[in-house]
Amino acid sequence: MAKVFAIANQKGGVGKTTTCVNLAASLVATKRRVLLIDLDPQGNATMGSGVDKHALENSIYDVLTGECNLVEAMQFSEHGGYQLLPANRDLTAAEVDLLEVKMKESRLRNALAPIRENYDYILIDCPPALSMLTVNALVASDGVIIPMQCEYYALEGLSDLVNSIQRIAKLLNPELRIEGLLRTMYDPRMSLTNDVSAQLKEHFGDKLYQTVIPRNVRLAEAPSFGMPALSYDKQSRGAIAYLALAGELVRRQRANARKAPAL
Ligand SMILES: Nc1ncnc2c1ncn2[C@@H]1O[C@H](COP(=O)(O)OP(=O)(O)OP(=O)(O)O)[C@@H](O)[C@H]1O
Ligand SMILES: [Mg+2]
């Protein structure tokens, strides 16, 4: 049964999409079966996976509105090695369209239910907003991975996100928890980075991934070729960091499974 993780932070440009694409490809490299869901009308994860967002027959929008089933919208990312549910600007309308349907918060969760056992991991790339799309992602997920830059304002936004996660856990999805916090575009030469890192460690303890993602130009270049960094330049520091993150995530999963009581 797949673990479903939303990659979320309402702050823009913190590395959500970069994390989603590169973590997906790294999990594939460790022989996991992965589905990436692009839930952002910007369609960046779609383009970064090598699929043209302008030429979609079906997209996640059609799945959410019931126009097609999930399998009909799926595409394979050649370079990433994972399945993709693509998105484009059409998804902007979903915010309004969903207002009229019943159980609007659970559309994605219900759509995923029949295919969850076909994957080991399902990663959802969220838009930079605490919108109905993000709520759908959080209701469908077991955990939230929060990418963030170590800057002062990052901490401010974080409490809003944590509050939203807690509210959704209480009202709609009791399974939901914070899976981990990921430091992105990390530059240890800046003293603020180290201060913020120490605060995150204090607040979130083991939830803070030990792996940090360095600022690395290969990570920024790879999407314009529709590739994860692992295909574009597998020796790059960025590609290696995301492989390490996949390893840490899988190890945590195993440790959690050991801790859980046997049924
Ligand atoms: N570790 C990194 N090193 C260098 N550049 C990076 C790194 N991570 C992300 N970037 C670049 O920073 C920009 C923002 O990253 P990304 O698109 O992943 O963020 P996002 O949180 O998904 O943004 P949005 O909120 O708009 O969806 C992109 O141009 C990306 O290529
Ligand atoms: Mg993004």
TrEMBL record:
Spell out the Pfam families in the cross-references.
Answer: AAA_31 (PF13614)
**InterPro entries in the record, alphabetically?**
AAA_dom, DNA_Partitioning_ATPase, P-loop_NTPase
Source domain of life is Bacteria
Ranges for the AAA domain? Answer: 3-178
Annotated family: To B.subtilis soj.
State the name under which the record lists this protein: AAA domain-containing protein
